[in-house]
């Protein structure tokens, strides 16, 4: 009788454990974060794009707090074709890949330069814009060429392709400048503040930013632009690794804008060409 009772208890306990274990397995599946697939974006009719909202003219806040910029217009125009609303979320640019992996955002679309490192970490759209790294100095500094930056303090944005270029091509800047390392800033705005205050003597910066920013400054004639001799760059949209359908839809959308003249209109608005 005792053996039968023990056998009954063991069997009953087993029946209780199996559903619990099964429930645990299902819980993992339902709580695991799924990639931001095209199907999900279409279903929600919304896509969340991460950006540095101080990157003029790609994506920045106007005096009234509204977002504006080349990438803002381009992203909206692409997703408008699919009936999808674009929400923009400000992120720490140096953490952009982490934000995408953690699915805080669906895309990085804000003057993202194609690099070997980013190609390994992300799926990237086809390039849609070419950019150059240039050096901005004040005319009053007397600096007119790269050689004049010897032992001078030079700034760059943290996490930017320009900062990476300094390490990748040390013979151009790294071996010349003070302490053989740039002073890193969280935004180009803060870097310009230090440049104007003579705390740095040069700033390695994207040409698309510098040309627009300087053009709209009251003291624009105070600056000189020097070629950096860094390789030219191309901008692309950053997509979570493996989301090829999202890439295809973005590429198709940009190509359609190129075909119907909308891309040319956006280029003319922001770059005059």
UniProtKB/TrEMBL annotation:
**Ranges for domain Solute-binding protein family 3/N-terminal:** 46-273
Gene Ontology CC, one term: membrane
Identify the domain of life: Bacteria
Q: List residues of the Ionotropic glutamate receptor C-terminal domain.
A: 46-273
Q: PROSITE patterns from the entry? A: PROKAR_LIPOPROTEIN
**Which is one Pfam family of this protein?**
SBP_bac_3
Q: Name one GO molecular function term.
A: ligand-gated monoatomic ion channel activity
Does the record carry Chloroplast as a key word?
no
| InterPro entries xref list | Iontro_rcpt_C (IPR001320), Solute-binding_3/MltF_N (IPR001638)
Keywords of this protein's UniProt record, alphabetized?
Signal
Q: What Gene3D superfamilies is this protein classified in?
A: Periplasmic binding protein-like II (3.40.190.10)
The family database entries (PANTHER family) matched by this protein are listed as: ABC TRANSPORTER EXTRACELLULAR-BINDING PROTEIN YCKB-RELATED, MEMBRANE-BOUND LYTIC MUREIN TRANSGLYCOSYLASE F
Q: What is this protein called?
A: Amino acid ABC transporter substrate-binding protein
What does the organism's lineage look like at the top? Bacteria, Bacillati, Bacillota, Bacilli, Lactobacillales
């Amino acid at each position: 009788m005792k053996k039968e009772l023990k056998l009954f208890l063991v069997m009953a306990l087993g029946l209780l454990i199996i559903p619990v274990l099964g429930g645990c397995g299902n819980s993992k599946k339902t709580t695991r974060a799924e990639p931001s697939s095209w199907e999900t974006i279409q279903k929600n009719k919304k896509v969340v794009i991460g950006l540095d909202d101080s990157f003029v003219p790609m994506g920045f806040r106007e005096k009234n707090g509204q977002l504006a910029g080349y990438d803002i217009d381009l992203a909206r125009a692409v997703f408008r074709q699919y009936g999808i609303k674009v929400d923009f979320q400000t992120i720490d640019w140096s953490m952009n890949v982490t934000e995408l992996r953690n699915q805080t955002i669906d895309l990085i679309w804000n003057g993202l330069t194609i690099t070997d490192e980013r190609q390994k970490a992300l799926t990237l759209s086809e390039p849609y814009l070419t950019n150059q790294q240039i050096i901005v100095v004040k005319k009053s500094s007397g600096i007119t060429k790269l050689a004049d930056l010897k032992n001078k303090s030079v700034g760059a944005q943290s996490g930017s392709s320009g900062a990476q270029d300094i390490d990748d091509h040390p013979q151009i800047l790294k071996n010349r400048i003070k302490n053989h390392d740039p002073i890193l800033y969280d935004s180009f705005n803060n870097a310009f503040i230090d440049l104007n205050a003579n705390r740095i003597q040069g700033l390695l910066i994207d040409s698309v930013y510098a040309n627009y920013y300087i053009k709209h400054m009251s003291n624009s004639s105070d600056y000189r632009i020097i070629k950096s001799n860094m390789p030219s760059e191309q901008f692309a949209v950053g997509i979570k690794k493996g989301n090829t359908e999202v890439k295809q839809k973005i590429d198709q959308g940009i190509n359609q804008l190129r075909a119907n003249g909308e891309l040319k209109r956006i280029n003319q608005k922001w770059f005059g060409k």
